[in-house]
Amino acid sequence: MKNRIWFLALFLLLLAACADDPPPPAPDEIITQMSAALAAQQSFHFAIDRSGAPAYVDPGNTLSFRHAEGDFLAPDKAQAAVRVNLPGIVTEISLISIGPIQWQTNVLTGRWEELPPNWGFNPTVLFDEAEGLPAILAADLQDVALAGTETLEDGPDAALYHLTGSVAGDRLFEMSGGLIGPETVSVDLWVAPETFLPQRIVVVEPEPERDEPSVWQVDFSQFNQEIEITPPTS
After folding, report:
1. Contact at 8 Å (CB) between 83 and 68?
2. d(CA 177, CA 92)
3. What confidence tens digit (pLDDT) does each residue in 71-98 have?
4. Among 200, 218, 223, which Cα is nearest to 47's?
5. 26-221: CATH architecture
6. Rounded to whole angstroms, how far apart are CA atoms 75 and 65?
7. Could you tell me which residues come within 8 angstroms of residue 47 by beta carbon, excluding any fewer than 6 positions away?
8. Residue 52: is its pLDDT beyond 70?
9. What is the pTM (predicted TM-score) of this model?
């Protein structure tokens, strides 16, 4: 009798191990859950890379954005090291954003300066709960499809949902201060199945006058870490 019980228990364990994983949620549901999960985070680390045509962040079209890495603290604070191209050189500046107010270190002197409101790159706007990139994707992403489950070579060592879609660029254009859009863009997203937190978002802009498109890549990590962001002191 005991042997039968052990055999039955072993059979049930093997059956459970061999059972198929439950199917993933619908693609639209994954996007909705992703936006909600990110909005629930108190903080996260981000890295943004841009390739392709110059994306100027100043009214004089002299500083073009290439890379930024830093931290976002909900609801409206961010700090980052930003790499920009000037004519003939590449340099890095520090940036602090608190609500609509931004400060950056002067390219020449290194001193902090408050920026005018028409500065084109503000991380707090990019990650805004209501109007930022994840919110726009949740509301406006079209033709959403689950491309599969995969692991990013340079990302977390875990299988992620890979989703694709497209979004009209007008809201992205307004949100980004003219850096993204206004043409329709294609989007790829990688989302953690357990938490629905985004790990990477890639936005590809068509460039009719160039052979290569312009690509924005946003990576997310270090969710809900203790960070402090304050105005610069000098």
Report:
1. yes
2. 21
3. 999 999 999 999 999 888 899 999 999 9
4. 218
5. Clam (2.50)
6. 24
7. 67, 68, 69, 218, 219, 221
8. yes
9. 0.87
76 CB contacts (<8 Å, ≥6 apart)?
A: 97, 98, 99, 124, 128
pLDDT digits (tens, 9 = 90+) for 9-43: 555 555 455 455 678 899 999 999 999 999 999 99
1, two tokens? 């009798």
Residues in the chain: 234
Residues 36 and 63: beta-carbon distance below 8 Å: no
Q: Which residue has the higher pLDDT, 153 or 200?
A: 200
Angle at 104 between CA 103 and CA 110, to 5 degrees: 135
How far, CA to CA in Å, does 165 sit from each of 73, 188, 189? 28, 7, 9
Give the per-residue SS3 of the chain. Answer: CHHHHHHHHHHHHHHHHHCCCCCCCCHHHHHHHHHHHHHCCCEEEEEEEEECCCCECCCCCCCEEEEEEEEEECCCEEEEEEEEEECCEEEEEEEEEECCEEEEECCCCCCEEECCCCCCCCHHHHCCCCCCHHHHHHHHCEEEEEEEEECCCCCCCCCEEEEEEEECHHHHHHHCCCCCCCCCEEEEEEECCCCCCEEEEEEEECCCCCCCCEEEEEEEECCCCCCCCCCCCC
Mean pLDDT score of the chain, rounded to an integer?
88
In whole angstroms, how far apart are CA 162 and each of 3, 15, 93, 195?
Answer: 46, 29, 33, 14
